[in-house]
Design brief:
The chain has about 375 residues and is mainly beta. It is built from 5 helices and 26 strands. About 5% of the residues have low confidence.
Length: about 375
């Protein structure tokens, strides 16, 4: 009888431990002045800062170490929230393979790219040792090569390899071809999330600029930032995402130096029109409930609109830490909810910049996702 009770208690403790373990975050974010060695972390009654202050430990019943938790520590800082729309003219480093095709010469059809293992999403950097400037240059180098077998420098993920491929002269236009469709540029509208008014360094979008056909993050060659005049909005509807539409200024106002899964980052030349600085809020401070986004959807400029944070997922990858819903009737009337071009709109709660809008739910334009601001700030540290 005693043994049975003991086993029941042991089982209950084990199940409780599993329940607690599953709920333990992978990481916790604090400001430097909140780090005190051995201290229990506010809001987490079972997680304690380690004795050396380098990480945190989840303890069962406050005694038994159960899991190590990564501790992210930040300086308290203030920064100017954005909301301004901007235009991007993006050129890749090399050319992206967006499709494979056959080449027909006098002897018949050939598939040289497929035969040498080239795939959609590969990035071709060089031809015969010459760096590729753009798609036109790519075609010129193929045409000008001295031999029919040429060498490509191909990047797939983080790995680069030399690939030998044979060109064929197409009977369609009498030009040499490799059976590859490529892309070298894109353009679009995004929203500034934050800016350091002193240095001009800014972050926006909250997600990467990716190729529309292959979904790979487009390798950054050079990218200009220009002012954009929002002329109209295509309203979002269920299963039909909306978008901001506008015209680009011919005058360059900045440039990008980084394209990452957590946003784009660069430098702007004019910062005087941006708003006053506000504190940043870490993921531990974010909560469900009322919040605001800042965005520019017409000629009236940046305005704040009310939203609701429905769910917070600290473990989510890339840009889906918040599930949000637009509740502001004026924004719903103008846009139908979240539309393309609003990516990067800063999310403000309790007077703090806590994140940015990243995606819209295609099936419900009133809802979308957001990213923690600290993930974006990590990219410029």
């Amino acid at each position: 009888m005693i043994l049975k009770k003991f086993l029941i208690i042991l089982l209950a403790i084990s199940l409780f431990g599993v329940f607690i373990y599953e709920g333990i975050p992978e990481s916790i974010s604090l400001f430097y002045d909140e780090v005190e060695c051995g201290k229990q972390i506010d809001g987490y009654p079972y997680i304690y800062i380690s004795e050396n202050g380098e990480n945190a430990i989840a303890k069962l019943f406050g005694k038994i170490p159960a899991k190590q938790v990564k501790l992210n520590v930040y300086e308290r800082k203030t920064i100017s929230p954005g909301g301004e729309a901007f235009g991007i003219k993006f050129h890749t480093d090399g050319v992206i393979v967006v499709g494979l095709t056959s080449v027909t010469d006098k002897d018949g059809a050939h598939t040289p790219a497929k035969e040498c293992g080239i795939e959609r999403g590969d990035v071709i950097i060089e031809i015969n040792g010459t760096k590729i400037k753009n798609a036109v240059h790519f075609r010129e180098l193929i045409e000008q090569a001295k031999d029919d077998v040429i060498t490509l420098r191909v990047k797939r993920g983080d790995v680069e390899n030399a690939v030998a491929i044979k060109r064929y002269r197409s009977i369609e236009d009498n030009r040499y071809k490799l059976g590859i469709w490529v892309r070298d540029s894109t353009a679009g509208i995004g929203t500034v999330t934050f800016i350091d008014k002193e240095s001009g360094v800014f972050g926006g979008l909250g997600h990467s600029i990716s190729d529309v056909d292959t979904s790979i993050i487009m390798p950054l060659g050079d990218a200009s930032i220009v002012d954009v005049n929002i002329t109209s909005v295509k309203k979002g509807r269920n299963n039909s995402p909306g978008e901001l539409r506008g015209t680009f200024s011919p005058i360059k106002t900045g440039e990008l130096y980084k394209n990452t899964p957590f946003g784009v980052f660069g430098q702007l030349t004019n910062t005087k029109n941006y708003s006053d600085e506000i504190p940043i809020g870490l993921k531990n401070e974010a909560r469900t409930g009322k919040a605001y986004i800042r965005c520019s959807i017409d000629h009236e400029g940046v305005k704040e609109y009310e939203i609701e944070i429905l769910k917070i997922n600290a473990k989510a990858l890339e840009g889906k830490n918040f599930l949000i819903k637009v509740t502001d009737s004026s924004l719903i009337e103008k846009t139908g909810g979240i539309v393309q071009g609003m990516s990067g709109s800063p999310i403000i709660q309790d007077g703090k910049l806590i994140g940015a809008v990243t995606h819209v739910l295609v099936g419900d334009p009133l809802k979308g996702y957001g990213i923690f601001i600290e993930k974006m700030l990590d990219e410029i540290e």
